[in-house]
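Sanity check. The docking grid for NDP depends on where the pocket ends up, so I'm generating a full predicted complex first rather than guessing from homology. Inputs follow.
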Amino acid sequence: MSEKIKCLIIGSGPAGYTAAIYASRAGLHPIMYQGSQPGGQLTTTTEVDNFPGYPQGTDGPAMMVDLENQAKRFGTDVRFGMATKVDFTSSPKKVWVDDTIEIEADAVIIATGASAKWLGLEGETTFNGLGVSACAVCDGFFYRNQTVAVVGAGDTAAEEASYLANLCTKVHLIVRRGEMRASLIMQERVKNNPKIEIHWNSETEEILGDANGVTGIRIVNNISKATEEIALTGFFVAIGHQPNTSIFKGQLEMDKQEYLVTEKGSSRTNIEGVFACGDVQDSIYRQAITAAGTGCIAALDAERWLAASNLH
Ligand code: NDP
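Predicted complex below; grid placement will be based on this.
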């Protein structure tokens, strides 16, 4: 099966839906394929308190349903399906969905996001949303005046530990080696914060909890093999993100962490007519609102490019 369209949007997080709202309103008749996790990373969050426009907060899945309905109201054709292969070497661009459906699109907006890396512990699944999180800025507020842990030793972990130290009574930072990978200035900030206790050479063996959520963790020292139980209510995993870019390898320019590279101040990739927005091209901010902002940019860039190319 093959279909020729003007604008294809791949991915359905805040970036994808915002691009869809703008592209529909601009008359581009976009088709969106939602990917393996319709709604994106926010569907794994319970409460969202920092997205402007929700004075009482909302929950992640509900917000994504709102965005989907808004995109549909203007005519976006939202479909289940996963882009499995692309060919951007000629125009129109070709994208295969679920290996069977072939879409030919003049413009393609990529909003496939990034996925948080996890440790692989059973408790990460059991207590997801009940004390386990991969985003301190999203969920830290719910742990104010409580004890939490952060796992990781890069800039994200250092930043999350410092952020949480402003809200929580105590932050345990679990570092698997005897040194941190984070930039020196971030390391100093963490080391000099009296609320942060660093557990060097330590890994988490188990997340402990009950029906109400996380109650603690058991860590093991990699050198002495001694174990220790720490009572806490929040467990933040900050060991990096993986952008969802594997199908674009060899076709689109990426940085060394495999994030898509966009031209500064725009959503343009190195291929004409292919635009990227949201976390797939942002290793730094990674917020729903910043993703939504770049989704708007991508739709405007696509519309202008189509018009300039006499395709709209
Ligand atoms: P990084 O890949 O830099 O660091 C990941 C950290 O997680 C490493 O310290 C690693 O340990 C640790 N880790 C990985 N797997 C495990 C595991 N299974 N158990 C325990 N620890 C583990 O990711 P970040 O998200 O921190 O940063 C990504 C990029 O974004 C970096 O380039 C960073 O500089 C940048 N960034 C910049 C910021 C800023 O400038 N404000 C803020 C945040 C990120 P080990 O060191 O032992 O490998």
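Relevant for the grid: The helical segments are 14-25, 60-73, 122-126, 136-139, 155-165, 184-191, 288-308.
Also worth noting: The two ends are 24 Å apart (CA to CA).
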